[in-house]
Amino acid sequence: MQCSPVAALILSNSKAVRKCNRNWNAVLPARDKSAPNNANRAIWRTNTACPKLIRSVKTAATSAHSKILILDFGSQYTQVIARRIRELQVYSEIVRFETPAAEIARLKPKGLILSGGPASVYDKGAPQLDPEIFSLGIPVLGICYGMQLMAHHLGGQVEFSARREYGPGMLHVTNSSQLFDGIGEQIDIWSSHGDKITALPAGFRAAARTENSPFAAIEDPQRKLYALQFHPEVSHTPRGKEILQNFVYHICRCTMDWTMGSFIEEACARIREQVGDQKVVLGLSGGVDSSVTAALLHRAIGDQLTCIFVNNGLLRSREEEIVQRVFGENFHVRLKYVDASQRFLALLKGVTDPETKRKIIGNEFIKVFQEATEELLEEDRRKSARQLVAANPSGGGHGGYKFLAQGTLYPDVIESVSIEGNPAQVIKSHHNVGGLPEKMHFELVEPVRQLFKDEVRQAGLQLGLPKEIVYRQPFPGPGLAVRILGEVTPERLSILREADTIVVSEMESSDWYYRVWQSFAVLLPVRSVGVMGDQRTYENTVVLRIVESQDGMTADWVRLPYELLARISARISNEVKGVNRVCYDVSSKPPSTIEWE
Ligand code: XMP
What is the average pLDDT across 569-574? Predict the structure, then answer.
């Protein structure tokens, strides 16, 4: 989820995103007593976060690049597969599991990967594929459920296994398969499956076994069909990358043509083609996604882009300065700065309910953005009228903003469909803030919608954005309002800003800032007794929230060194007037959320 204030508000308008977020929310598990300790946490997280979802994009793009298509059967790891392939500098895209063979042929992929998934091939309603894909002559690699589906469709036998294979195992390579070229006879693997293959389809042979299964890897090299019962894409299969490499380079014969340089060039060409000589407006928040989008658009269309930066009064210390310096001064992007802080703070006066705060901020943002765009139009009208009058005293001029740019990322455009009809549930309303583009009749420009977050960062660096922007931590759209529990007042904002500045500076100077997902302070509506010098104090409480996460969907608190915690705590209580107690939040998500409201 994109976390910059502007982009998040706009972004949540897309139906796909709303659906995706609702579904993710709906399936987040309640407190899981079987949650393992830290070592296995990464695996536990990805397995429990979204148990029954099928995610896929509506349309895949045709492009000149070598391309691998991934048919998504709902695995937690589908996106990981796509990223692994892109790490090999080969473009990959996720498509719906039932994409017809004719459509796949039209997209001209060099290879197909069938992802894993939570279903059993014999389940009623289990996701099925178009069996014609096996006759296209395109190499196919089935993983886990993808393997079982391949065997099932091609005449093999898949059976429920009483002994579930879950977690680490040892793979013994039994046949010289191109898939295992250069890998040796034995490797560590990671599996997660119940069903297994008991009879091979005609033409197939076993390529590797585990203790539990003689058919841990199977293949029909003549038809270029390959399948694995384990997950080569996860880091717990350390040689998995080489297996994928063998498939992608040697079996599919892909070329390594997916690089950031080529992406930027092509993205600029696409932007110019879409936009022509029209004007584009972009809500810049200072977050990495909207910043990279701005830099990319600026490279593509220069002054046709205008960014609007709204100060809602809920920003971190000096945030508006940083954004104006980077974009206005260094990049020379046309930037309209709108200081609407008083408007927001007036509306938040006396409000303590978290959802009400969020709704007020979301609605007001839309109004401010709309007004700012109208002001821009007026400024442009005046300017072009002056120019036209000078050039042609009888003419008039008007240039509208036809396009709205936003930093939608690839994970945001992947459509989520609940295969068990999980009821939708709202956890926080940022996932459902309504309709800027619809209201304002903009056409969207989303130049980074093909990219994963780490790729957006690479693009940002290549475009010359500073590290402080490219690697900054996510910051919620409603800003510090959701980190101040209770009423948001100028005094309480100032306490939180000072505490937050200390957290950030200590995290940076100890080199922890870039190692965690987020690190920030929260101000509680709780006062407690303390002692300073000989004086009794009765002051505020600050909580430190420092978490690690892959995507913000699940998170764990960071085991920071005690010395660092002690330093942050001492500095806050000594330097921030009005605070005499600092606590550390040791809750994971779920059951807590990252932000406190
Ligand atoms: P929660 O609190 O839901 O946060 O666990 C997950 C991630 O989302 C960020 N977040 C937001 N991002 N607008 C955003 O753009 C919002 O309203 C919002 N609320 C939470 C949060 O900082 C974390 O990274």
Answer: 98
Question: Could you give the CA distance from residue 282 to residue 437 in angstroms, rounded to a whole number?
Answer: 11
H or E element, residue 283: strand 279-283
In this prediction, residue 190 carries a pLDDT of: 93
| pTM of the model as a whole | 0.78
Q: Which two tokens stand for residue 325?
A: 């310096």
Rounded distance between C-alpha atoms, residue 555 and residue 492, angstroms: 27
Q: How many CB atoms lie within 10 A of CB 134?
A: 21
Q: How far apart are CA 545 and CA 508, in angstroms?
A: 15
**421's torsion region: left (phi>0), alpha (psi -120 to 50) or beta?**
left
Residue from 363, 313, 360, 321 nearest 341 by CA = 313
pLDDT tens for 282-295 read 999 999 999 999 99
The residue contributing the CA closest to ligand 1 atom 18 is 476
pLDDT tens string 48-62: 233 334 444 444 555
Q: How many CA atoms lie within 13 A of 394 on its CB side?
A: 0
Indicate whether residue 478 lines ligand 1 (CB < 6 A).
yes
* Dist CA 494 CA 348 (whole Å): 15
The string of pLDDT tens digits covering residues 305-354 is 999 999 999 999 999 999 999 998 889 999 999 999 999 999 999 999 99
Contact 60, 107 (CB under 8 A): yes
Buried b (16+ CB within 10 A) or exposed e, 78-109: bbbbbbbbbebbbbbbbbbbebebebbeebeb
> In angstroms, what CA-CA distances link 249 with 79, 100, 256?
20, 25, 8
- 506 CA to centre of ligand 1 in angstroms: 23
pLDDT at 317: 96
Which residue's C-alpha comes closest to atom 17 of ligand 1? 430
Strands 415-418, 305-311: pairing is unpaired
- Do the beta carbons of residue 504 and residue 557 sit within 8 Å? no
Does 590 contact ligand 1 (Cβ within 6 A)?
Answer: no
CB of 228 closer than 8 Å to CB of 216: yes
Rounded Cα distance, 295 and 150, in Å: 44
Return the SS3 of 589: strand
Residue 303 has phi, psi (to 5 degrees) of: -75, -5
